[in-house]
Design a protein that fits this description.
By secondary structure, the protein is mainly α. The protein contains ten helices and no strands.
Amino acid sequence: MPDSNITKRALAAALKELMETKPFSKISVSDICQACDMSRKSFYYHFQDKFDLVNWIYYTECVAVLKEKNFDTGWDLLEDLCLYFYNNQSFYRRTLSVDGQNSFSEYFRDIVATILAVDMEEIFGKDKYLHFYVDFYTDAFLCAIKRWLLDKNCMPAKQFTGLLKNCLLRTSGSILQKLTTSPESAGE
């Protein structure tokens, strides 16, 4: 299997290098293969298409690494995730701007939804609308990440995650306070 990873890493490096000068949509599998002197057969032995290669890059560089860490809180996980995106923003700006079937955005959304589903189930239990809550927070998170990374003046990851945390905690705290002090709740 080590030879397989060498080939995959060579293809990944070629794609990353090409994306420094060309939009993702303009890069073909042939371009990737030519850049690392490999055959298309080698590419297709390892990946279904260039989207699959992007997803493999994300999984091996980020997801697999984050899985190995023992985070104290979800905020720590979020901060490491955003730091990874920030450090690789040139690459992910180009991949996150592509939507549609097999896109990185779709793949990333599925990963976020899987993580959030666990948290949402803890909060809401087996609520029949659990999928709605998961979709809501997944879409909000994905939209915030995209907007942040695609901003030409992308703020540092720690500042971004701090703002997300502040926003969520303060708004939920305010809502909770209003609910517990409202005249409607006084009669309950």
